[in-house]
Amino acid sequence: MSSRINTILILGAAGGIGEATARRFHSLGKQVIVTGREQDRKRLEQIVNELEGLEYRIALDGILRHFPKLDTVFVNAGIQNHYDIFQNPPPNLAQEAIQELTTNLVAPILVAQAFAAHLLSLAKQGIKTNIFLTSSSLAYFPVPFYPTYCPSKAGVASFCKILRWQLEATGVKGMSVVEVAPPYVDTPLNAHHREQTDALQGGPEKAVQPMPLDEYIDKFFDLLENTKQDGSINDEIGVGFGGQGQKVWKQGYESLLRGSGMTD
Predict the structure, then answer these.
(1) 7-260: what CATH class?
(2) 28-65 pLDDT, tens digit each
(3) What are the extents of the domains in the chain?
(4) How far is CA 59 from CA 11, 19, 45, 63, 182, in A?
(5) How many CB atoms lie within 10 A of CB 127?
(6) What is the number of alpha carbons within 13 Å of residue 115 lying toward its C-beta?
(7) Strand pairing of 175-181 and 236-238?
(8) Model confidence pLDDT, tens digit, residues 4-31
């Protein structure tokens, strides 16, 4: 892994998995650039002050001008809303759903488009490049609590596969498209509605409990080191339920697609 990643841009790094991932890459001696929303500026500044050499941006404009050797992009930003369409739907449901789909699905597609040509160009020059897109175990195991979050992450999982197949069609080696599928991790993502989802599962004693963040990061980086025979990063990195969902898809649906001639 170390030989493939030198300069990495991590989107959505003001907290949770994104921040923890940025900190780990920084500890490994990588050049790390982090991003967040305007309201995250103070938090990003705090992280930068703690970690010497780490840089932050609010907008993506100018990233490639300042970091022309950027070889890895990690899209991790996401939001999660809890609501019931039939019982007590929120009055601003349309706004919430659009925002959630935009952040979780539209934004990763646009980011991939923004950096695809650059990463492909470096790969043609023999420089190993990577794009990581974060889906979720809920892309494969939807639950009734999150009627927009689950399909948005299923869309990311699907987009990863399509992007990888399109990359294969170019014939260019040395670039990887990696789908990262975390399980339920203890982060602020669902902090504002965790009590509600626990209650729907019969209370905190019966509810599925999140994986500690440090444990997830350790497992993710262990899997990151488990490369293919040629040293390239695996197509999927899934921890816990995320990995199980990816495995079932590959064993079933991918084999059906390839058998039908839909993909090579």
Answers:
(1) alpha beta
(2) 999 999 998 889 999 999 999 999 999 999 989 999 99
(3) 7-260
(4) 10, 17, 14, 8, 26
(5) 15
(6) 34
(7) parallel
(8) 899 999 999 999 999 999 999 999 999 9
